[in-house]
Every structure is written in structure tokens, then in C-alpha cells.
Amino acid sequence: MTQANEQMIQQMVEQVLQHVQTGWGSRQAPAAGKGAPPPIATVSTGGGYVPPVRPGVAAPVAPAASGAGRLGQFSDVNLAVEAAKTAQRALIVRSLAQRRQIVEIIRRICVEQAEPLGRMEYEETRIGHLPHKAQKLIAVGENPLTVTDLGPRGFSGDHGITLEECGAWGVIGVITPVTHSLPTVADNACNMIAAGNALVINPHPGGKAIAAHGAKIFNQAIYDAVGIDNLICVICEPTLETANAIFTHPDVGLLGVTGGPGVVAAALRSGKRAICAGPGNPPVVIDSSAALDNAARCVIEGASYDNNLLCLAEKEVFAESVIFDAFMDAMAGAGAYRLNGQQMDALARICIEPGANGGHPHANRKFVGAEPEVLAREINVTIPPGCRMLYGETNATHDWVMAEQMMPCLPIVRCQTFEDCVAAALAAEHAFRHTSIIHSRLVDHMTYMGKAMDTTLFVKNGPSLAGNGSGGEGYGGYSIACATGEGICTPRTYT
Ligand code: NAD
User: Fold this and answer.
1) pLDDT at site 322
2) Disulfide engineering: 476 pairs with which of 109, 341, 454, 468, CB 3.0-4.6 Å?
3) Is the Cβ–Cβ distance between 211 and 185 less than 8 Å?
4) How far is Cα of residue 170 from the mean position of the Cα atoms in its chain?
5) Dist CA 142 CA 187 (whole Å)
6) What is the CA angle 492-192-232, rounded to 5?
7) Secondary-structure percent of the chain, ordered helix, strand, coil, rounded to 5
8) What is the arithmetic mean of pLDDT over 406-421?
């Protein structure tokens, strides 16, 4: 080895160590409150590592600090995609430590401003239960997953070493639902940016203001900390046309869609790779061995949360005949209000609409996420203050069972055997393969139902929320990609 080579190697080792120790290599980390220095591809190379820039792609620059299209506020899809592209190019040459910092910024805002942001979301959408709006943002803030989720996979053997790394897609086209507008924007942004992407979001028109406001404060804080603007671009006046423009834009590499069956079908028709967090209609099975008081408490906790807006929330219950009456009493004991058969039918005629063209019945938008007393009032029933749930007996094909109601009114179906419960649950789930729940002390029943349902989440002896990191183990998210099979979306999903 020559002297020159030894010096070069020494220099390289020092540079690598500097990168490893600071995450910044030869660059200077941004001081708090200051913009970052330009991304490394634009600084003097000085022997430091410069990532290759694809031919025809301009070197990344930090976006302008003023002018149109700042802080992710856009009316035009083309301009939004252009801004997101610029932001993504600036992001991809930064360190993983900076991506982690950006995720932490979004999560910190979700926690610190949970109350005012939750209230803004409620005041705009007017659905769900106000105290849960802040909780949902705090849940985004407490998600443990970050860039570490991108950990590479290595192979080492007689012929050398191969390392698989997770690569970014670039600009992701995002659709968010009205049921959790800002939580989905924030959760998607954390996962997608951790994976090295920028977002162009077409929010639900019913939650567009909070989506745009959230993006604005996230972008401002990100810009202040690392000098990149427009990582999260929002179409402030979203329409089906703007959604379609995102779906077909040549610079949008991937779609991340959260919503009902219509938008999932539209995204899958686009011809692009689409990660689809689609609808659910989660059934619960209560078998004869179940701890009934615990089952009732769990069912009410999950089904009443945010007035049943969550896609994974309990939507119908199938109980074995021998414990059916005892379970109905346990529901009352746990604070739910029992409606009789006529009242369940009458309320269904008001709250559920028939499916078109042989489709499933669906919720009347006017009552989605309504408080239980509002539903009860529709049929001249007054419920005790503080009651969070209505319930009543129906048959297995009732509209309350077949519709994804997203309201705190739960149909309970009497089934002769455990196997009958599972068969009815399977029919009610409509092969969405989203979430199912069992209350049982029999492991073979749990296994039987788990295999029969084959849902993305399968929760045993807990509220549905426990399957999404809330009161259970693991992690959660606001996009559960049941329609395309990725499961609860994490940073790795968007690589
Ligand atoms: P929705 O389907 O009415 O709207 C969802 C989004 O899709 C909105 O932004 C809407 O504007 C857009 N959209 C609807 N049709 C479209 C089309 N043809 N082309 C392009 N965009 C279209 O649903 P919602 O009421 O906002 O949310 C509730 C639904 O979302 C429920 O079905 C619920 O289960 C589902 N959801 C699923 C998850 C999950 O993680 N799997 C999470 C939240 C909500």
C-alpha cells in the first residue's frame, strides 16, 4: 500500500466517523430556530460524500422563503407537486437524524397543541366526541416508530455482503378522510417523511381547513428547524378533480389513500401503486366461555370511542345463545342504553340508507359520529346523561349489521353456536379484512375465528383500540391498509 493510499484511507475513516457521530458529516447542524445550511449537494464538495443526482434532475435547493405556495398551501395540483418535488429532493440528501427531527417536530406539535387543534377539527367537521379529538392527536404524538423502522436487511456469506436499504418513492399522493382529518395528515406525514418522501394531500372537503392549518404549522416548524418548506403540501380547495389530477400526475410515484370503498376503487384504477386503507365493518364474537362483564366494558369502550368513527371500532356483535341474555344485561351494567327491536328498526330507517346497485347499506351522513343522545332523540327516547352507547337485538342481516354505521348504536345478534357466530361475522365483515374481535377463554375458538376471518387486526379479549397500539402492545396508526394488505402503515410501508 502506498503512502498516498494510507492517507486517503485515514481521511475516509475520519469522515465516516464524523457522519456516524453527528449525523451531519462535514456540514454544520442547524442551530435551534435557524434554517439549516444548504443540503450537501449544493455545498462545496471538499472531499465530503455527495449523493448522486439523477441526470436531468436539478441539484436540490432549500425552497424560497417567500412567495406563492409557501407552507404547503396550494390551490393547484401541478404547483403543489412541483413544490413537493423540490422539498423531497432537499430532504433526501439530509441525514436520517434530520428526518427523525422532522418527525419529532410534527409529533411534538400534535401533543402540545392537541386541545386547540382537536377543537378546531371538531368545530369544522362537527362529528365525533370532542374530548377524543385531542386524544387522537396525542396518540399520533406518542407513536414510537420513526426512521429506525427503515432498518436494512443484510446478507453475508462466502461471496461477500449484500445490503438491502429502504428507498423513498419521492412524492406521495395522499387522500385523507373526514373522520380523522388532522390525525391522518400528521400520522401520514410522520411515516412518509421518515421514509424520505414528501406529500401532496387532497383532504376530505369536510375537513380541509384543519388539514391545511395543520400542514401550515408543521411546515413552518420544519422550515424553522431544517430550512425545508413544503414537505407537506395540501390542496386547500379539494375536489374529485384535484384528487384525480394527483392520481394521474406523472411525478407522483405512489398513492396513500385512507377512506371508504369509493376512493379505494378510484385509487386502484389509477394505474399507480396504491396503498389503500379502506373501509371496515368489524364484528365481535362473544362465546359461551367469555368473561361477560369485561367483554361488555371492552365493547363499549371501543364502539363508543369518538362516537364510533374509527374504522376499526366494533360495529356489530354476535353472541352465543346460552350467554346472550347475560351479555345484554352486562352491556346495561356497563352503562349502555338498551333499545327494543322496534326502536332499533325505527332508528335504522332514519340513520341507515339502502345500498345502491346491490351494494351494502350505508350510513346516513347526517348522523355519522353523532352523540348517542342525538340518535336517541330521533326516536323520542331520552337516555341518562353521560351514557355513551345505544344497543339492541337485531337479526344477522339487519341494516345495523350490514352497514358501517360509524354511530354509537350497536346491533347484538343471537346465534345458536360459536360456529354460527363466526359465519355471521364473516358475512358482516364483507371481506374488507380489516378488524375482528373475539371475547373467549378458549384458545381453539380464538384460533378458529382468527383463521376464518383473516383480518388485518384480530383482537382477543380487549377493545378494538388495543389492536392499534392504544391500551395494547405494539404500535398504531391512522391508515390501516387492509384493502391492499400492508397492515398498519409505518415508515417502511412508504419505501
Ligand atoms: P370517504 O370515502 O367519503 O372519503 C375519504 C376520502 O376520499 C375523502 O378525502 C374524499 O374526498 C375522497 N374520495 C371519495 N371518493 C373519491 C373518489 N371517487 N375519487 C377520489 N377521492 C375520493 O370516507 P370518509 O367518510 O372521509 O371516511 C370514512 C371511511 O374511511 C370509512 O369507510 C372508514 O372505514 C374509512 N377509513 C379507513 C381507515 C383505515 O385505516 N383503514 C381509516 C380511516 C377511515
Assistant:
1) 98
2) 468
3) yes
4) 19
5) 10
6) 180
7) 45, 15, 40
8) 98
CA distance 373 to 408: 10
How far apart are the C-alpha atoms of 260 and 156, rounded to whole Å?
Answer: 44
Alpha-carbon distance 45 to 343, whole Å?
Answer: 74
Q: How far is the CA of 145 from the centre of ligand 1 (A)?
A: 24
Residue whose CA is at the smallest distance from ligand 1 atom 41 = 277
Residue 318 is predicted with a pLDDT of 99
Does ligand 1 have an atom closer than 6 angstroms to the CB of 455? no
CA distance linking residue 254 with residue 280, whole number of Å: 23
Pocket test for ligand 1, best of 179, 234, 257 (most atoms within 8 A of CB): 179
Q: Which amino acid is at 342?
A: Q
Q: Whose CA is nearest to atom 2 of ligand 1?
A: 260
Nearest atom within ligand 1 for CA of residue 203: 9
Residue 5's pLDDT is 61
Beta bridge partners of 286: 319, 439
The answer, yes or no, to whether any atom of ligand 1 lies below 6 A from the CB of 312, is no
**Neighbouring residues of 106: CB distance < 8 A, sequence distance ≥ 6:** 140, 186, 189, 190, 193, 218, 221, 222
Cβ(445)–Cβ(289) under 8 Å? Answer: yes
pLDDT at residue 15, as a whole number: 55
* pLDDT value, residue 21: 40
Residue 80: all three cell numbers together: 403543489
pTM: 0.88
Q: Are 146 and 100 in contact (CB under 8 A)?
A: yes
Task: Please state the separation of Cα 471 from the chain's center in Å.
Answer: 17
Return all residues near 227 (Cβ < 8 A) that are at least 6 apart.
30, 35, 36, 37, 38, 62, 90
